[in-house]
Amino acid sequence: MVPRGPRRAIRGTHGRVVGYRKAPHPSGSGWCLTPDPESTTVVRTIVEEVHAGLSLIAIARKLNETGALVPRDRHAQLQGRPLGGRRHGRDFERFRWTSGTLSKVLRSPSLMGHRVHQRQTVQTVHDATGAPVLIGPPLLTESAFHLLQAVLLARSNGTRRKRWTANALLTGVAHCAGCKGRMYFALRKGYPYGDYGCRATARGDVCPAPSSVRSDWLEEYVLSHYHQTAPAEAEVTREALLRDGVRVTVAKGRKGGDAKRMTGPDTSRLAFTMQAPPAVRPEN
């Protein structure tokens, strides 16, 4: 089915919209958005692979291997700016596709040509019939977009678990020694603790030595070293650790061992560092 053309182009300036590029308005006044051939090809390939049953992690890996630009880098390229930049305290020559990036792209109504704010169609931008005013020719028809959402929803039902990152003390503090990337908390079902683990695959990377460690052990290790160096606080928060430049690096554990493994972490694979803390904490 061929998508319908835009009812009326929206003039003015536009930010980064996946699959589109800025172009002069046909009227000669202002600007509009038109499909970007390179980005459109990438988007349609992604949609085809989702329908073919590939996971978002597998699709991200394929895109990274072929050198396809993420929306942020493609936008920079179109603007004549350098690719990459700084993210999570690390510098990248170019950004990589991740399952999270793909999810945002695939769930955005902008694929139908809708103007979007906070991932939702802007309800105030409609024509006299109540239909959304399009930013440009849609990349997917409404029926194709809704079919795609049904496929994504069917995959996620029963597999999405409550996100605990808000309660994870060491998010942004714990890093994997194998890939230098952040480690994230995951709850263990039926246990009062979880694990911090390498998430390279979720970033579209392959870690040569992915590490993981029990969350209670790692948090106790970090707090013990922190209290030895920093002035005591009533409660240590993630914000305090990040403020003082605390970082713990976790190397991959060894297989095997005896009952001693269950008594605590192997500290030989943990490395704690911290920037010099202030001599006196500011009073609240």
From TrEMBL:
InterPro entries: DNA_bind_recomb_sf, DNA_bind_recombinase_dom, SSR_resolvase, Zn_ribbon_recom_dom. Residues 17-158 form the Recombinase domain. Gene3D superfamilies: Putative Large Serine Recombinase, Chain B, Domain 2. It comes from Streptomyces lacrimifluminis. This is Recombinase domain-containing protein. Pfam families: Recombinase, Zn_ribbon_recom. It comes from the Bacteria. The keyword DNA-binding applies. Keywords: DNA recombination, DNA-binding. One of its GO terms (molecular function) is DNA binding.
